[in-house]
Amino acid sequence: MQSFARRFGEGPATEALNFSRAHVYALKKVVEEEGIDCEFELRRSYDVFCNDGEAEAARQYVQASQSAGKQWTEDVALVEGELAEQVSDVECTMICLR
Question: Mapping DSSP to helix (H, G, I), strand (E, B) and coil, where does residue 94 land?
Fold first, then answer.
């Protein structure tokens, strides 16, 4: 999100992310309501930050966005320390779960 916002601006980045997020949940709802037999599975994704500087920049961006009530942060979590390494299976500083 942060690099997309730098490139295209905060408004377009937020709009694109909200659009994408809404479609994932809409698809999930249709699959469930219609009883569609398929392999749809809603999963989380994550960004791994192994560089302390990049991790701190991402942390500040996510926390500022959460404080501002940005919709895209509703299901975003920052995971740090040993738990981040357990989730990502690599030695890292932080991960951002989406």
Answer: strand
